[in-house]
Write a structure and sequence with these properties.
Blueprint (H helix, E strand, L loop, with lengths): L14 H38 L3 H25 L2 H10 L6 H23 L3 H6 L4 H15 L2 H16 L4 H23 L9 H25 L17 H32 L4 H37 L3 H28 L1 H8 L3 H16 L1 H16 L4 H24 L9 H25 L10
Length: about 475
């Protein structure tokens, strides 16, 4: 076992010393998480850049296809994300015998989620018809999703196993295999998109096949590692396999479904925007996709910090170090805002350079540059909401944050974005920028309400763990 989760003796440390010690622990936990998240997002960046250099239609197809599968994946990732604080809490309480049964229920949940996700993605033709896409783009989008579906089981099983590795404090494990998947995805993209080594040029469809193959290689490699590594010899998957336990499954789902739905609400907001923009043409969709890719990549830093915060707070609560948990949640918010200011400056001042890295099309560059300005403006609100909601997940408070996110994104942001984009209610129609204004307003709303809840939260309100 590593020592990244060991309690900090509160009586012997001042507030500043304790804060710095906890930030060091977050860095040890969050650094590998950040690299893993960047590796996973890098797959999307690689797909976008390489498809963009094939054609605007291929880029639009990958963007629309991603807008359909990413919210589903993130929703199920959130559901399975309940495993991490549960496992971490069991570790903090030294209830090691409960860890493998929970892990196996996560595997079963992941398999069920894969069946649902594949079934939905293979039947998106009615959605594509509603978007009024031109026939060529619609066929490319469907072909991309058909290929991607083969990798869905591997992606979700790896997500379930992450509950074990991250929950035990070994965040470097998923980091290593995520990087492996990305390194494999890059050459496969080159081969399949542009037709190398005797393969036909598939364009955007090749991105789906590359992602599927690289995902299976990474997941199978992770399984081999977990069953042979000395680090995990106390938590052997096959030796300690468990049958489905509906009581534990229900407890995981009770905690995980609100997390998954919360993530889906936020992610679908971005994706629905791309779908609503589809009738405006591939140039607008492509520009939005570039801006979204950049924002997603930048977001990995506060997201990884938040994931580490969830792990650490759940451990501290399990170890009954509640004062340290409260101090950590509040101090990390200050750290996250400082990070947001740095990224806002980069997006504001470097939007032109960023756009040219993605595409050579001047029209697409202009759209993406305009949207990146809005992305810079909502950085502080974005990191505030993700930090607060991550801390609350460490306390296993998930239902109320879910309601806050639904209200902010679907009740405020999306309707406002629609009005600003397509109508002249407040001003001339703003096009894609209108939805990004709506995003900013929804993030501010979520950040304020989640921050208020975090500062008023009492540990006694937390539900029992699985």
């Amino acid at each position: 076992m590593d020592d990244t989760h060991q309690p900090i003796p509160e009586a012997r440390q001042g507030t500043v010393a304790r804060t710095l010690a906890e930030w060091k622990t977050l860095a040890l936990l969050g650094g590998p998480i950040l690299i893993a998240q960047i590796a996973q997002v890098a797959n999307g960046v690689i797909d976008t850049v390489m498809a963009g250099h094939a054609s605007a239609e291929d880029l639009a197809a990958v963007g629309i296809g991603s807008s359909l599968w990413v919210p589903l994946f993130l929703m199920f990732m959130g559901v399975l994300g309940a495993l991490q604080p549960i496992v971490s809490g069991h570790r903090g309480a030294r209830a090691f015998g409960q860890i493998m049964p929970v892990t196996w229920q996560g595997i079963y949940i992941g398999l069920g989620a894969a069946l649902i996700m594949v079934g939905l993605l293979l039947n998106v033709r009615p959605v594509l018809n509603l978007l009024r896409l031109d026939l060529h783009t619609a066929l490319l989008t469907q072909g991309y999703l058909d290929a991607f579906c083969w990798g869905v089981p591997a992606i979700l099983l790896m997500t379930a196993l992450r509950g074990l590795t991250d929950g035990l404090g070994h965040t470097h494990v998923i980091m290593a295999f995520s990087v492996l998947g990305t390194l494999i995805n890059l050459p496969l993209n080159y081969i399949f998109i542009y037709g190398k080594l005797g393969m036909p040029a598939m364009g955007g469809v090749g991105c789906g096949w590359a992602t599927s193959i690289s995902s299976w290689i990474a997941m199978l490699s992770l399984l081999v590692y977990l069953n042979r590594s000395r680090v995990f010899h106390h938590f052997h998957l096959w030796r300690e396999r468990a049958k489905p336990d509906w009581e534990i499954i229900n407890e995981v789902l009770r905690l995980g479904v609100p997390i998954g739905f919360t993530i889906f609400v936020e992610a679908s907001m971005f994706s629905v925007i791309a779908l609503f923009l589809a009738p405006l043409g591939p140039v607008v969709v492509a520009g939005h996709q570039i801006a979204l890719n950049v924002v997603s990549l930048v977001f990995m830093v506060p997201l990884s910090l938040g994931m580490a915060l969830t792990l650490r707070i759940s451990f501290l609560v399990g170890a009954r170090e509640t004062d340290t948990a409260r101090l950590l949640g509040r101090s990390t918010l200050v750290l996250a805002v400082a990070i947001a200011l740095c990224f806002a400056s980069i997006l504001w001042l470097g939007n032109s350079l960023i756009a040219t890295l993605y595409t050579n099309d001047p029209a697409v560059q202009a759209v993406s540059m305009h949207l990146l300005v809005f992305a810079a403006l909502f950085q502080i609100a974005d990191v505030t909401q993700v930090t607060c909601i991550s801390a609350l997940r460490g306390y296993k408070d998930t239902s109320v944050p879910m309601v806050i996110m639904v209200f902010s994104f679907w009740g405020i942001g999306l309707p406002l974005g629609w009005v600003l984009t397509f109508t002249d209610t407040f001003a001339e129609p703003m096009g894609a920028a209108g939805f990004w204004v709506g995003l900013t307003v929804s993030l501010v709303s979520a950040g304020l309400m989640l921050g208020t809840r975090l500062f008023r939260f009492r540990v006694s309100a937390q539900p029992a763990t699985a």
